[in-house]
Amino acid sequence: MIEGISIHHILTVTTIMFFIGAYGFLTRKNLITMLMSIELVLNAVNINFVAFNKYLYPENMQGHFFSMFIIGIAAAEAAVAIAIIINIYRNIHSIDVEDIEQMKY
Amino acid sequence: MDILTSLILIPVLTVLALLFCKELKNIRVIAAVGMTIQLLQAIRLVFIYMAERASGNDSEMILKKSYQWFESINIQYAVGVDGISVLMILLTGIIIFTGIFTSWKMEYLTKEFFISLIVLATGVFGFFISLDLFTLFLFYELAVLPMYLLIGIWGTGKKEYAAMKLTLMLMGGSALLLVGLLGIYFNSAPDGGQLTFNILEIAKVTIPIEAQRFFFPLTFIGFGVLGALFPFHTWSPDGHASAPTAVSMLHAGVLMKLGGYGAFRVAMYLMPEAANEMAWIFIILTSTSVIYGALGAIVQTDLKYINAYSSVSHCGLVLFAVLMMNQTAFDGAILQMLSHGLMTALFFALIGMIYERTGTRDIKKMGGLMKVMPFLAVAYVIAGFASLGLPGLSGFVAEMTIFVGAFQNEDTFHRIVTIIAVSSIVVTAVYILRVVGKILLGPMIDEKHSLISDAVWHEKIPIFVLLFTIIAMGIAPLWMSDIIWESLGPIVDKLVMLTN
Amino acid sequence: MEFSYTIYIALIPFAVFVINGLFGSKIKESFTGYLGVAGMVVATYLSYFTAYHYFFKVGKAVDGAYQKVIGFNMEWLRFTESLHIDIGVLLDPISVMMLVVITTISLMVHIYSLGYMKGDKGYSRFFAFLSLFTFSMLGLVVATNIFQMYMFWELVGLSSYLLIAHYYQKPSAVAASKKAFIVTRFADLGFLIGILILSYLTGTFDFNILCNPEGPAFMQSSSAVFLGLSTMGWALILIFMGGAGKSAMFPFHIWLPDAMEGPTPVSALIHAATMVVAGVFLIARLFPIFAIVAPNALEVVAVIGGFSSIFAAVIACTQTDIKRILAFSTMSQIGYMMLALGVSGYGAEAGLGFMASMFHLFTHAMFKALLFLGAGAIIHAIHTNNLSEMGNLRKYMPIPHITFLIACLAISGIPPFAGFFSKDEILVAAYNHNQIYFWVEWIVAGLTAFYMFRLYFGIFWGKEKKYDHTPHDAPFSMTFPLIFLAIASAIVGFIPFSNFVTSDGLPFDIQMHWEIALPSIGIAIFGIIVAFVFYKKESDLPNRAVASFGSFYKYALNKFYFDELYLFVARKVIFKRFSSPIAWFDRHIIDATMDGVATITNYIALKIKGLQSGQLQQYASVFVSGVLLLIVIFIYLISV
Amino acid sequence: METIIFYILSLVILVFSVLTVTTKKILRAAVYLLFVLGATAGIYFMFNYNFLAAVQLTVYAGGIVVLIIFSILLTHQINTDLDKINIKKIALGIISSGLGIFLVLSTLNNHHFEASNKQATDSTIHGIGRALLSYSDNGYILPFEVISVLLLATMIGAIIIAKKVEE
Predict the structure, then answer these.
(1) B75-81 and B62-70 strand pairing
(2) What angle is formed at CA B402 by the lines to CA B398 and CA B403, rounded to 5 degrees?
């Protein structure tokens, strides 16, 4: 509970942040920058969880723990993603998402 | 052990035994032994059935067993037989038995071939003993699917095309059928209560007429596709022409009967009001089938195509008869299924053997084969005569029962289409005699054919078995007709009483 | 039962067929022939015994009429409670008479074939099929119900097919057998539909019920009328269509001349004496219904019979193949029988035509079988069928010569040979019914005498031709049947037939009608004289006669182009106009529709597979747009 | 006071978020991301979730961003600009994002959240640790175990994927 700040304020900020992340995911060509966009999205969601926890259900800590696990998984995800990116770079000397289209048809 | 379940277990065990078998010789022997036991079981079943009936058991289905296997939507493994299914099981037993011997010389992927063949037969046996619509559908699919592999791998000619076409068309039919069966299921308790897939229980209630109007055509066409209902028959010529011998035998001999049997036992029996209402549409289609198939067969030059079109004509007659709403015609329909199963299996077996010897199925390239292979030729002639309905052979009994039955209908429409269907016997005679005259009689066309040898033992076994049954059925039809007749009682009560 | 043994008359040939058919290739060849003859001897004895027993001991009921006796009956297949096919033996005057005819001729042909077929490759097969035919024919005549008759009807068709195709490597024989089967099958279609209608109207197949004047068949006379005939009439005409097919009546006659491709004994047995009269027998069997319920249908029978007889007689005058001449002569004589049935009424004296027809059937079987067997002996000796390659054979073959002469006299109606008596009765019956029929048949009688003696003089007189080897006389196995049948042809005319076979079973007496007999004898003698003048010695008289007939001769020589007409219908109309289009339609319309569905599916798949571009961001934007769309739909469109 | 801090943090988050997804230099993007993550941690502090904030800083800011930078270094010359982005793509992105923001915000504004007045639970490290390892009603031992297995799998997976393939 932040003094003088309603949940709407927080949700507004996270919504904008979320869609900025989404915008980045849709427009960036570089895999690493796309990964960063995803981190933005995840962060926005994390804040939401915490905010709901704090404002609506302060009596237990589900939102809090959810965020924590998300952070844990995000770490794992980032590690795997970067391993994959490096591997792709090794193979095709590019990490441009448009060059990666082996999965078509 | 329960004899009906054993009819499924024996093929399954045979398949398992085949899986662990390496040598070619053992494979054949195991398959042959397994199917011989199966045939004996089928024969035993007939005797058990007759003994049951003789001892005064007059319930609709006998040897009933039922186990719940999927409780939440009330699917049961429910089995039971009446006279009709007993005879169909006997037919299947005979044909799979002969089919094994016909493929004795199959050398490419033998094990897999026999396994697929027997799996197919398992499906057919399961279909005929099932009383639960869902289980029935399951076995139906089990019978249809191996066909793809059997034609696609072991076929000849445009096999991939044919296999794909056959499978897709039959699957299309299955899709309609599944909708139809589910429709029956969801209307199986119009007054509330437990929904059921059990045929006997559904038969006790009256499905609302609106539902019947919608689901009857779906179910009938779904089964009709397999029964080569015009215009959904085109998989048949291509499929049969490409399939290996035993598969053609099994397919034309038994699988196409699944269509007729299902259309009768499921579609018409469970939805009699709609069946009566819509029969005329399908009567037109089936009588077209009958004539159309026969006329189509006249100009073909490939033996298998001729037989495939002939099957369209004969199976059309089966569906034609079941639509005639008359106990005699029903009786004839079942007889026709049996008769056509036997003779078409014999035909395909012989065509396969002729093809092995001459390397061609084109009737223009053969001639005078009677001289070099009298046994096969005589068998072919007899099969031909059975097909054109000569007295003393099975075809006559079946066709005459259908015609007499169909003609007993009061109204002109039924009698006129009957006359149209009757005229197919002349056309049949034309194409049968054309083939016999071209390939068996007359002078030898190809000099190479003078070196052909006659049948050997593993070819004679199936031919003898089939010839024997065809002639036996033709000479003493009454016991068979009686078994069918008494089993038709409940169905007639539901269907025919309605018209009066 | 008293007559239950009669079933063995039919079953013995069947047993012989089974033995010869299954083991023919295993056992000694000559044995199969002897087995066939032995079987026939037993069957013949049994049928003579039956005839004696029936006609002279027990057949007559108290009122003097011959009753119908069921010798044996067994249910074979049940359609409904009242409609069922039985297999049984029905004995009445006509069936007993047919038993005698069939077994006699069949026995003779069996004996004859021992010599004729000697050395043939298909010897045992031939005897097997002969037995099969005999079995079927016997089953046909003793049928207790119309469906049993139909079954055996088909079976005689089958044996006819098999025997015509005996020389199966000869294309013409194969074609002829096919033609015979299909033409008769087509006619049988009418028969079958007729049976269906008849059984529908009467609810029975049983002859005893059908022909009972108090039975249901006779209640039907007032039923619906279609094209001027009652339904019953149509049923009977359709049944007659079957009979016309089997009996080679116009327009189903085209198979008979070609059927001569079979071995000559077969022609004698099947295509002269027995099977071809099955049609006549069929009408006779159903005669009460025809005569009482549908006289119109009977009129049709008479017209077809009369036309066929003169049509065939004209053609017979022009042919050169001796067997074909005999075939057309058969057709002509059967036309006589049909006509006789057609002009007959029901009842004793009124049923003169019926009796005459049966009588003629009986005598004709004897002399026509004799003619064929004689022709067979000649063909056997000089290996040709062609009349123009024969001549002056009388000195080489005395027995065939004499017997052939007797047969020719018999068929021409010269007293005291058998044909005279039966033909005379037919002419009387025709005269009583309608004089036109009489005059037509009178002319036919003359033509018959002419072409038969043309044949006779052509073969046995005239100039001697060159033969491959000196013609030899036939062996005893062949001459014995000739002699036997010649004696029969000479004397059977004296049997008082009307005492045994009448339309209603009541015997009556007939008188000679000399006012009819004399003109017919006259024209027969005239025909013989013309033939004598034309063909006794080579002369150009025939050619001049031909020239004076002009194109009519050409038409007759080509059988009025009926073969060509049928061929045209079969090849050009059925094949080209129905079957080929249907095959095309099936491949290119129906099948193409099915394939088209697949093709369209495939096409669409190819088109939309571009959506799976592998571009991650494309997928993502679709995903995001989709989510947004769902938000719009669910929150703004639906909830409001 | 708190209000102002919140606004400042929000502003930082939004501005640097935008910069992260728009800047041409990839390394800069990583740094901007770092600011965003830091500001997020700040918000967690304001909620009085100190442990979460600490985790955010160590795992995200300390771990992930470093990983990202490493990967940038491994795959890029640092100075090269990123490729120009197709204007259509940008337009599409802006439209869908803008629409998304509009839709979500308008929905949010129409929705009234019932703020709870209940007493907040203990969010000390002690309490968190207990909750994480407890298997009672409010315990998270199962997800905790799952996550640990996942992390182990990730470790192995990442090593195997990134390992040089031996020729």
Answers:
(1) antiparallel
(2) 120
Q: Kind and range of the H or E element at C77?
A: strand C69-78
Within its chain, how far is the Cα of A90 from the centroid?
26
Chains B and C contact (Cβ–Cβ under 8 Å for 3 or more pairs):
yes
Residue A98 domain flag: no
On the question of pLDDT at B273 being above 80, the answer is yes
The verdict on residue A1 lying in a domain is: no
Domain assignment of residue B367, given as a range:
3-499
Domains held by chain B: number: 1
Q: Does B425 touch chain C (CB under 8 A)?
A: yes
CA distance C512 to C516: 9
A66 touching C (Cβ < 8 Å):
no
Amino acid at C359: F
Place of tokens 């569905």: C597
Task: Write out pLDDT tens, residues D82-120.
Answer: 777 788 888 888 998 999 999 889 888 888 887 777 777
- Considering only CB atoms, D2 lies closest to which of A2, A36, A54, namely A2
Q: For residue D110, is it within any domain?
A: no
Domain count of the fold of chain D: 2
- In our burial notation (b when 16+ CB lie closer than 10 A, e otherwise), range B480-491 reads bbbbbbebbeeb
D2/D73 same-domain check:
yes
Measured CA to CA, the distance from residue B137 to residue B130 in angstroms comes to 9
In a domain, D62, yes or no: yes
Give the separation between CA C169 and CA B467, rounded to whole angstroms: 25
The verdict on residue D43 lying in a domain is yes
ipTM over 0.85: no
Structural domain including A81 reads 7-92
Question: Is there a domain that residue A51 lies in?
Answer: yes
Cβ within 8 Å, pair C615-A97: yes
* Domain presence at residue D111: no
- Token pair 């005879």 in the structure block, residue: B87
Output the domain CATH number for residue D55.
1.20.120.1200
CATH code (residue A52): 1.10.287.3510
Which structure tokens are listed for B19?
């899986």
Residue D7 domain boundaries: 1-94
Burial zone of C226 (CB within 10 Å; 0-12 exposed, 13-18 middle, 19+ buried): exposed
D61 and D137 assigned to the same domain: no
CA B476 to chain centre: 21
- Same domain, residue pair D83 and D2: yes
Listed in sequence order, the residues at least 6 apart from C433 whose beta carbon sits closer than 8 Å to its beta carbon are: C302, C343, C344, C353
pTM of the predicted model as reported, rounded to 2 decimal places: 0.84
- Residue B474: name the closest of C24, C12, C158 by CA: C158
d(CA C358, CA C341): 9
> In total, how many domains does chain A have?
1
Q: How many CB atoms lie within 10 A of CB C549?
A: 13
Tell me the residue type at B426: V
pLDDT digits (tens, 9 = 90+) for B358-392: 888 888 888 888 888 888 888 999 999 998 888 88
A84 contacts on D by Cβ (under 8 Å): 161
Chain A closest-CA separation from residue C635 CA (Å) = 17
